[in-house]
Write a structure and sequence with these properties.
Length: 306
């Protein structure tokens, strides 16, 4: 665990043992992973400290009044809230003197899954990059299911390690992630009206961005920029759009550009090159190639037959 006193108490959590040391626990049974039961006696003051974790963290919090700061916002843990944190994220606990009353945390080093199939697929679990406000809210049944896998991992860690131990642990870990993905899909569906509102706001933001010619100055808006405008993480916005429309973020942007191009082609006599520049393309041939790949027509052919 590294502490940088020059930068206002930045603590870098490099190992699983660092987490145990911070919580006053004994050394972990395995150097790369630990299942930690949240206990009433754990009281730690992290006032004016920023934590930079190099670990993956999955934390279920119940009956806890704890506020965490992520970016410029503060979020309350709610009962039955599951939070996912990936390596490199910065966490600012604003007040953790009040103890955890229930729940569990799972911390593991990236090296744990390096040689497993999960090492190749963990990037698909985009919820590791969601903000705390986009955490997963579980039913009692869902909490019990995930706790079962955590218990199996803990049982495995408490046994004598052999050549099968890591494979079995990674299997249970992957089960937690797969079920969490299913539960997130359920959460997206249960928030369908709210999601449609966000979808509408995104489309308005995209229209305003192009109407104000920001694309000419700054290029196509990035996923993170659009997410920030929607007050959510870019990954959450991407997943929301995919669930609601079946189209990815970039497909939405491309569709908006194509629709603007069609309007310009059919409602003006501007040369194709001028239209290409107005849409942010530096070279007309790039626009023509892009337009044909999306519509099956060259810009001039589209204009002629419509």
């Amino acid at each position: 665990m590294l502490i940088d006193s020059k930068k206002d108490k930045i603590i870098t959590i490099k190992q699983v043992s660092d987490v145990h040391a911070m919580l006053g626990l004994n050394e972990p049974r395995h150097p790369l992973i630990s299942v930690i039961e949240n206990r009433p006696q754990v009281e730690t003051d992290f006032t004016d400290i920023r934590l930079v974790s190099e670990l993956y963290i999955i934390a279920l919090k119940e009956n806890l009044r704890c506020v965490l700061q992520y970016g410029r916002n503060h979020y309350d843990y709610e009962e039955g809230t599951l939070v996912f944190i990936s390596p490199g994220q910065v966490i600012v606990p604003s007040n953790t003197k009040e103890p955890d009353l229930a729940g569990w945390s799972l911390v593991f080093h990236p090296d744990l899954i390096q040689k497993s199939s999960l090492g190749k697929t963990i990037s698909k679990y985009s919820f590791f990059d969601y903000e705390f406000s986009e955490a997963l809210h579980l039913s009692e049944k869902e909490k019990l299911l995930l706790k079962g896998f955590a218990n199996k991992m803990e049982d495995e860690l408490n046994q004598k390690q052999d050549e099968h131990s890591i494979d079995i642990i990674c299997h249970h870990l992957e089960s937690i992630l797969k079920y969490s993905q299913r539960f997130y899909d359920r959460q997206f569906l249960s928030r369908i009206y709210l999601n449609k509102d966000y979808q509408s706001k995104f489309e308005k933001y995209l229209k305003q961005y192009f109407d104000d010619d920001q694309h000419i100055e700054s290029g196509i808006p990035s996923l993170d920029e659009c997410g920030k405008a929607m007050n959510m993480s870019g990954k959450y916005l991407s997943d929301l759009l995919k669930k609601e429309t079946g189209k990815s973020f970039i497909e939405h942007v491309h569709l908006h550009i194509i629709n603007k191009a069609k309007i310009n082609l059919l409602n003006s006599n501007k040369p194709v090159g001028q239209i290409a520049y107005s849409l942010g393309f530096k070279y007309p041939q790039h626009f023509s190639k892009f337009f044909k790949s999306k519509t099956g027509f060259s810009p001039n052919h589209f204009r002629a037959v419509h």
